[in-house]
Amino acid sequence: MAVEHGRVSIHGEWSSRWVFILATSGSAIGLGNIWKFPYIAGVYGGGAFVLVYLLCIVLVGLPIMMSEVMLGRRARQSPINAMRTLSAEAGAARPWRLLGWFGVVAGFLILSYYSVIAGWSLGYIFNALAGDFRDVGAEGVSGIFNQLISSPLHMLVLHTVFMILTIAVVARGVRSGLERAVRLMMPALFALLLVLVLYAMMTSGAFMQGLHFLLYPDFSKLTPTGVMVAMGHAFFTLSLGMGAVMVYGSYMPGRSSIATASLMVVIADTLVSLLAGMMIFPLVFANGLEPGQGPGLLFQTLPIAFGHMPAGVLFGALFFILLTFAAWSSSISLVEPAVAWLVENRGLSRPAAAILCGIIAWLLGLGTIFSFNVWADYRLFDRSFFELLDFLTSNIMLPVGGLFIAIFAGWIMPRAMTEGELATGRRVYASWRVVVRYVSPVAVIIVLLNLLGVLRG
Ligand code: PHE
What's the pLDDT score for residue 1? Predict the structure, then answer.
């Protein structure tokens, strides 16, 4: 039985399984799907990259998501304490506790730049409303974008506002804060994406070309770095490897099925990414833009469409509002593990813990802001500060965190513990166990070795 140990979370619970699915989708679906996925697919050549990414989602992402939810629900505590409780319960060595800490650090690092990019989205709401996109061409939009990223002050203001929004929700707690925030936003975002894909389909004249780029696997374009980025992105987009899903799992009501819930989140997340690609690439090709231009892709493509469509001011503003909301429902899950721990162990009130975490992530975010302007010339390994942070977190920290979660769930926890908590049919359990013990760890290890250059040459 799933609840035989009788633990309850001091932070409360989602009011139903649906809310868990909604909130976890809210965490998963964010800038990763709409901003990052299209731009990295563009940089790494399209179809073959997308195929590797989809494989990683199925073979690594889904089983690790189930594991994280399971660990969280069994322990009903912040990831740091969850790892402590579960390693004691499983008779595992003390260093396993560090896994929770590792995730908290990754969460801060990601949030610091996530908030800056979400700030861009926030800023674009005002550009859209002001009519800045009206009839713009490719040059006009890149002018708007460059103006934004070359102004540290402008970015700082937006980053600050976004961080305050994040903290405000986290401070209010599981039910009245997080839960309320995601209920409306996710369905609206999905609907608007569909509308925009239809628009791209009907008007761009390059829909097939965009689709071809996104889905036709040309393996000659796939590089070892592309494989690594695809795997890293599978973790990033599903919010895995740092405790966000674990902490949301710790608020999951008693006996609902972890396998079904995880599968639904994974499907929703993947659909949104593919839709985002189908919305952006036709516009890229129709306007003679460069698919591999990097982080500015979304911000330098979509406004062209908004500038030409009927009611473009409305659609443009709506799109960036919803994107900001999607980012918001993800950013709250990036700090929730740290906040839950501060409340559990340091006796802080939720608001105090949230503010403290917000200040730390806000300060770190300054580095990302400057990396686009005043520090643009400082590079390490040919990467700016922002690129290094993104690389370190998505391509190293999350996969490493996920690897250890898979090993813990598949090898360290006794079978009876995981079987009881997952409580699914025999077949599903057996497949989960094989994949999480062998397939996912091996896949992650190969990709990480590849990163070290061990398999190269
Ligand atoms: N999954 C989120 C996105 O795609 C980002 C995220 C990563 C959130 C890790 C929480 C943890 O935008």
Answer: 35
The pLDDT score that the predictor gives to residue 189 is 87
Instruction: Calculate how far, in angstroms, residue 439's C-alpha sits from the geometric centre of ligand 1.
Output: 23
Q: Of 246, 224, 255, whose CA–CA distance to 336 is shortest? A: 246
Contact 403, 444 (CB under 8 A): yes
* Cβ–Cβ < 8 Å for 262, 426: no
From 120, 330, 357, the mutation candidate for ligand 1 (largest count of ligand atoms within 8 A of CB) is: 330
For residue 310, the CA-to-ligand 1 centroid distance in Å is: 33
Residue-level pLDDT at 368: 97
Q: For residue 247, report the distance from its CA to the centre of ligand 1, in Å.
A: 13
**What pLDDT, on the 0 to 100 scale, is given for residue 411?**
97
Residue 168 CB neighbour total at 10 angstroms:
17
402 touches ligand 1 (CB under 6 Å): no
The pLDDT score that the predictor gives to residue 380 is 87
Ligand 1: residue of 29, 239, 405 to mutate (most ligand atoms within 8 A of CB) is: 239
Query: Which residues, including other chains, have CB under 8 Å from residue 345's CB and lie 6 or more apart?
Result: 80, 81
Q: 27 C-alpha to center of ligand 1: Å?
A: 6
How crowded is residue 378: how many other Cβ atoms within 10 Å of its Cβ?
A: 10
Which residues of the chain are modeled with pLDDT < 70?
Answer: 1-6, 174, 177-179, 181, 454-457
